[in-house]
Amino acid sequence: MDARGHGKSDKPHDPAAYQLARQANDVICVLDSLGLKSAGYWGYSMGGRIGFALARDHLDRFSHLVIGGAHPFARTLPQRARTTDPDEFIRVLYARTGGRLDSLPLDMKRILYGNDFAALDAATQDWPSLADVVPAINIPTCLYVGDQDAYLEKMQSYATEVPTAQPLINLPGLNHTTAFTASKSVLDALTPCLNGIHPTTS
Predict the structure, then answer these.
(1) Is the residue at 179 inside a domain?
(2) Distance in angstroms between the alpha carbons of the first and the last residue of the chain
């Protein structure tokens, strides 16, 4: 599914529309509309953050979690992170997460520059801490991060606190951006963890 503000989903310009509880509820609404009582959840970066909110409010609706490039700790962004200028928004985004804009593939640049930057600016918010959720996660969990990602240390600091998580998967040579775009490398690295959750995964 496309999170609000992204892809083909609605793109409100009101920051209140992007409160974490609302974004988590969007996922539940999709499950309800499909008639699914339970599903697996895979979220990366902002999607990973939404995964922690789902673990807090709706854990009974999920069979397992896969979270990449995300941590549950509070985040306060500097004012310079708020901008509707496409070049500046993308530059700040990738600098903040340890990525390099000049390493982005051309097709990814086309996707990025096709966004509604007023909506993305509204979605760029400070985060409250969800660290208290971590010890309560009691469903199978896979965690992964690029070893060049600025979030690596924070992910290492909580990964062992998830009771049902397999060891944190470090993706060599990948940063926050490339761990999102290098899907084959990610799937190859995560397949053993996924097989541990569902032995039929291939």
Answers:
(1) yes
(2) 22
Based on the structure, what is the number of domains in the chain? 1
Q: How far is CA 75 from the centre of its chain?
A: 14
Measure Cα distances from 173 to 43, 53, 135, 145, 170 in Å: 21, 29, 30, 10, 9
pTM listed for this prediction: 0.89
**Among 36, 81, 83, which Cα is nearest to 62's?**
36
Q: Which domain holds residue 55?
A: 15-74+128-197
Q: What letter represents residue 50's amino acid?
A: I
Give the span between the Cα atoms of 133 and 116, in whole angstroms: 32
CATH code of the domain covering residue 160: 3.40.50.1820
140 part of a folded domain = yes
Are 148 and 126 a contacting pair, CB within 8 Å?
Answer: no
- Helix and strand numbers, DSSP H then E, in the chain: 8, 4
> Under a CB-based contact definition with an 8 Å cutoff, are residues 69 and 153 in contact?
no
- Which residues, listed in sequence order, are joined to residue 66 by a DSSP beta bridge? 42, 142
Local confidence pLDDT in tens for the 202 residues of the chain: 999 999 899 999 999 999 999 999 999 999 999 999 999 999 999 999 999 999 999 999 999 999 999 999 998 887 766 788 888 887 877 776 666 667 667 777 788 888 899 999 999 889 899 999 999 999 999 999 999 999 999 999 999 999 999 999 999 999 888 898 889 999 999 999 999 887 654 4
